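retry 2 of 3: previous attempt timed out while embedding manganese (II) ion. Reduced batch size to 1 and resubmitted. Inputs unchanged:
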Amino acid sequence: MPPRISLTRYLVEQQRHDNRIPAQLRLLLEVVARACKSISMAVNKGALGGVLGSTETENVQGEIQKKLDVIANEVLIEANEWGGHLAAMASEEMDGIYVVPNRYPQGEYLLLFDPLDGSSNIDVNVSIGTIFSVLRKPEGPSGVTLQDFLQPGHQQVAAGYCIYGPQTTLVLTVGAGVVMFTLDREQGSFVLTQESLQIPPDTREFAINMSNMRHWAAPVRRYVDECLAGREGPRGKDFNMRWIASMVADVHRILTRGGIFMYPWDNREPDKPGKLRLMYEANPMGWIVEQAGGAASDGLGRILDIHPASLHQRVSVMLGSRHEVERLAAYHTAL
Ligand code: AHG
Ligand code: MN
Ligand code: MN
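retry 2 succeeded.
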C-alpha cells in the first residue's frame, strides 16, 4: 500500500517545491480545510444539530438565508480571522468585505467564499458544499479596500471546494493541476485520493435547469435542442441530462466523468447577467475546470478574464468538457 498523503503533507511538499505555496498560503488552506471539516460535521448532524430550515434574514442577493448559510459563514470567518494570513474576506452571505479586526495581525491574502452552495438542497439531504477563492492583496500603503478584491479570476492563487455528500471531498488547485482529498472521519484528516484530475474534452452529458428553457437565449436553446435530438439530430449521438441544483455537486460530477454545466443568462430578469456569482462561484470553479483541461465561458469569452466591477457581480456560466463549451461559445458568436 502506498503511504497515505494527508492534505498537510501535500501542502508542505508543494511549499518545498519551488515555494509554490508560500507559508501564509499553506496556513490559509489548512485553516479553510479545517473550517470545512467543521461545516461537514454540522451538515451531517442535520435535524439532530438543529441546523435545518431557514432564518428570517435575507442576504445581499435578496435570498432568504438558510440556517446553514449563516452557520457556515460564521465558521469560515471565525476560523480565518486570527491566523495572520488574511487581510480581509468576502462572502456571498455578507454585504461588504470583512476586514480582519486590528487586534489580529494582517496577512497578505484575500479570501472569498460561498459558504454553503446548494442551499435549496440542505433540507432534502442532497449534496451541498463550500466554494472558495484566494487572491493576493495588491501592494499598497493603505489598508485593504473593496477595490482590492476586484481582480479577474486569472489572478487567483488558490481555489477549491468541499462537497458534503456521501463522502466529504475537498478539491483544490494552486495552479499546478487539480487534486482531490477525501475526509477520513476517524482520523479527522483529508487524505489525497486523486491527483491530476482531467475532464474529458468530449461528453454526452449536459446539466442545465430545463424548467427555464422558455427564457433562454437562442444559442443556448440551439445547443440543448441539438443534444435532445440525439442520434437522429445534428450531433449524431444521444445525450443524458443531470441537474442537482448544487453547483458543487454538478461540477464534481463533471470533474469525475466529464459533462457541461450551464447556468446561462435568461430573460426572467433580463438586466442580470446570470444567477451565479462571479467571485464566489464562477471564478473558483472556472479555474478548477481549466486546471483539469476543461473550459469556462460566459458565452462571450473566458470567465477568468472578466474584470469585476462589483463584489456580488453575477455572470452567465458555461463550463466543463472543452469541446462542448467551445461549441456553445461558437453558437453565441454565430447568432
Ligand atoms: P447558493 O445555494 O449558493 O445560492 O447557490 C445555488 C446555485 C447553484 O449552486 C445551483 O447550480 C443553482 O443555484 C441552482 O439554481 P436553480 O434552483 O435555479 O436550479
Ligand atoms: Mn452557490
Ligand atoms: Mn451559497
